[in-house]
Amino acid sequence: MLPVLEGEEVRRRWAGRLLAQEEIATKVRAIIADVRAGGQVAVERYTRELDGVDLKKAGFRVTAGEIKAAYEAVTPELREAIQKARDNIAAYHRRELRGSWMEADAGGTILGQICRPLKRVGLYVPGGTAAYPSSVLMTAVPARVAGVEEIALATPPRRDGTLPPLLLVAAAEAGVREIYKMGGAQAVAALAYGTEEVAPVDKIAGPGNIYVTLAKKEVYGAVDIDMLAGPSEIVVIADAGARPDWVAADLLSQAEHDALAGAVLITPEAGLARAVVEEVARQLETLPRREIAARSLANYGACVVVPHLEAALDLANALAPEHLELYVADPWSWLGRVENAGAIFLGPYSSEPLGDYWAGPSHVLPTGGTARFYSPLSVTTFMKKISLIAAGPAYLKAAGSLIQALARAEGLEGHARAIELRLEEGDRK
């Protein structure tokens, strides 16, 4: 059942989802240490113990034969869906590309910035009991658009040692051929530090469970990471014109992800809130993942009735949700009030699953309130910038005395002398 709560209670519940994880963090650190010390043997041992798969028999790296078999197992309709989704994602993210730039002043001094793609990245895709080919596309396609040369994809195998055919087709359509059957913290460690069979990467991106998230946090510094993604979230702001069944369906679309997922309706209409509560209960009865969704709604879901839409936006900004739906009349007029969200969906037909599968922006988004400072995964996730400075003697002469003053004010005489020597050389010429 979807509870009716006050806004402060929702904030407290959502904050509590990610607290008290030290016990898991301790386990994650132990796994990472084992993989750093034991390499491939440790990865295989954890895969056998945690996933029930013997990689010696199942094979560790996906072969060309497995990819060929995957194409034969996937229907033409699903192959077409994967290809069209890939094209939508690529078209959106190509708009993010920014080139290097340089500017010269009248004296010939050049300042600029060089943009380079990362050479090698690791992508994590959740798996095991479920398949997420959409997450393959939403991470691999922006990386390809950015120009990344090497992409290593890790995803946990199923109990029979295989990977879902549609996931393999998605990887192939995104141009990924280096695919490993490994998951959890051991996969993150293998990508970060390397093993006898996996070369280390420069950055790890992609969503995962709490073990994966904490492992990414642990290896940060040895490699870069995209973000610390937690359980999925949706906030729907709705007014009197909203259809209760559509609102309920959108809430359930996120609640079915994970028992820790958060799904919240905020509305000034008490009648709508009651109708949505009833509709959620009705739709839940026939939802295949109803047990997961029911736990999510009971613990982290809510209907919040507020005095007006301004208060609804205030609460949404405080929650900083992964997904925010503005299911209100003239949603564009309210867009300027949104300060914190991973992705915004405007109007009744912009249902959140459009973002998960089709529209174009990556569905790897900040969660757990981190939309206050994190951005969605994008082309820039897979790029680095290098500053460029090319000064001439006139530039140095004009600024030299001020640079020396700043350096000596900080007690860094060596900095000052590096400038001073060059000024003296110029004076002698």
TrEMBL record:
Q: Which residues of this UniProt protein bind NAD(+)? A: Y124, Q186, N209
Q: So where does this one cross the membrane? A: none
Name the GO cellular-component terms: cytosol
Q: Single GO molecular-function term? A: histidinol dehydrogenase activity
Name the Gene Ontology biological process terms: L-histidine biosynthetic process
Q: Which family does the entry's similarity section mention?
A: Belongs to the histidinol dehydrogenase family.
Q: Does the keyword Oxidoreductase apply?
A: yes
Q: Which reaction does it catalyse?
A: L-histidinol + 2 NAD(+) + H2O = L-histidine + 2 NADH + 3 H(+)
Q: What is written in the cofactor note of this entry?
A: Binds 1 zinc ion per subunit.
Q: What Enzyme Commission number does this protein have? A: 1.1.1.23
Q: Does the keyword Flavoprotein apply?
A: no
| Pathway membership, UniProt | Amino-acid biosynthesis; L-histidine biosynthesis; L-histidine from 5-phospho-alpha-D-ribose 1-diphosphate: step 9/9
Keywords, A to Z, come to: Amino-acid biosynthesis, Histidine biosynthesis, Metal-binding, NAD, Oxidoreductase, Zinc
According to its UniProt record, which residues of this chain constitute the active site?
A: E322, H323
Q: Where does substrate bind?
A: S232, Q254, H257, H323, D356, E410, H415
Q: What does this protein do?
A: Catalyzes the sequential NAD-dependent oxidations of L-histidinol to L-histidinaldehyde and then to L-histidine.
**One Pfam entry name:** Histidinol_dh
Recorded hits in HAMAP family, A to Z, give: HisD
Q: Which cofactor does it need?
A: Zn(2+)
- What is the name of the protein in this document? Histidinol dehydrogenase
